[in-house]
Amino acid sequence: MKRSIPELQALAQPLVMVTAYDYPGGRHAEAAGVDVILVGDSLGNVVLGYDSTAPVTLGDMIHHARAVRRGAPDTFMVVDLPFGTYHTGVQDAMRNAVRVIQDTGADAIKMEGATPEILEVVQTLTRNGIPVMGHVGLMPQTATAQGGLRVQGKDDASARLTLEGALALEAMGAFSVVLEAIPARLARLISERLAMPTIGIGAGLHCDGQVLVTHDLLGIYEGEEKKIAKRYAELGRAAREAIATYAAEVRGRQFPTKENAFVMKDDVLDKLY
Ligand code: KIV
Ligand code: NA
């Protein structure tokens, strides 16, 4: 059954979130019993083959989130607002968030950052009944401005910025926040200070929940090994081996077999000769 926000906020065990991008991904996540599915804009990297999340459009997110929802009708689903869709003013952000909710059946949206501009957007959306998950620490959409894809919150200024950002997101009405690539002790401090659940990725064990990119945990997306992810399967390798076996069997005339073929009556065939 789909969990409500109060239920997600009161889980006795760590909250489990994974990403999904399509119908089978949604089905697998729901069957595995995760608490939250995130249709992440990591879509751009692990599914669409871009080298950042910046090119991902609202249309891409909606297209994929609709497929996820068909596969996972009974799981709380959060959809990332992609780069540029909440940065041009509160009205635009509101309109785009409403579109995502209406077109995909999302239960909430997620956005990166805690600048005054973003906080205003968070406040407006939550006041208008759109649940918002925040995201601080490493923020891939604007990583270039953060000095690349690197750990945040290690020095005094950056740690303070991350802590204050998370607190401000809660004050503006966010119901949860992702902490990405920050030191474990900082994540622990933030988790203690906040009432809302923190969901960590590369943020240590003391967050209220964890999230992984499914294509990382399944070994489907095989970029460089990521310190923040753990591979629980090698589906990429399994896929290559299966396709190579198929190719060899076709070339060796071992596939298809009788079991894969259809039969017809001899007399029908005779008439064709
Ligand atoms: O896009 C994504 O997959 C994310 C998670 C890593 C939190 O934002
Ligand atoms: Na994201």
TrEMBL record:
Residue positions of the active site: 180
Q: Which GO terms describe its cellular component?
A: cytoplasm
* UniProt cross-references to Pfam families, sorted A to Z: Pantoate_transf
The record describes how the cofactor is bound as:
Binds 1 Mg(2+) ion per subunit.
Per the record, the pathway is: Cofactor biosynthesis; (R)-pantothenate biosynthesis; (R)-pantoate from 3-methyl-2-oxobutanoate: step 1/2
An example GO biological process term is:
methylation
Keywords of this protein's UniProt record, alphabetized?
Cytoplasm, Magnesium, Metal-binding, Methyltransferase, Pantothenate biosynthesis, Transferase
Quick check: keyword Iron-sulfur in the entry?
no
Q: Give residues annotated as binding Mg(2+).
A: 41, 80, 112
The cofactor required is: Mg(2+)
EC number of this enzyme: 2.1.2.11
The record's section on InterPro entries has: Pantoate_hydroxy_MeTrfase, Pyrv/PenolPyrv_kinase-like_dom, Pyrv_kinase-like_dom_sf
* UniProt-listed CDD domains: KPHMT-like
**Localization in the cell:** Cytoplasm
Give the residues the record marks as binding 3-methyl-2-oxobutanoate.
Answer: 41-42, 80, 110
Is Membrane a UniProt keyword of this protein?
Answer: no
**Which reaction equation describes what this protein catalyses?**
(6R)-5,10-methylene-5,6,7,8-tetrahydrofolate + 3-methyl-2-oxobutanoate + H2O = 2-dehydropantoate + (6S)-5,6,7,8-tetrahydrofolate
Which family is this protein grouped under? Belongs to the PanB family.
Q: How does it assemble?
A: Homodecamer; pentamer of dimers.
In UniProt terms, what function does this protein have?
A: Catalyzes the reversible reaction in which hydroxymethyl group from 5,10-methylenetetrahydrofolate is transferred onto alpha-ketoisovalerate to form ketopantoate.
Q: What is this protein called?
A: 3-methyl-2-oxobutanoate hydroxymethyltransferase
Species classification: Bacteria, Thermotogati, Deinococcota, Deinococci, Deinococcales
Gene assigned in the entry: panB
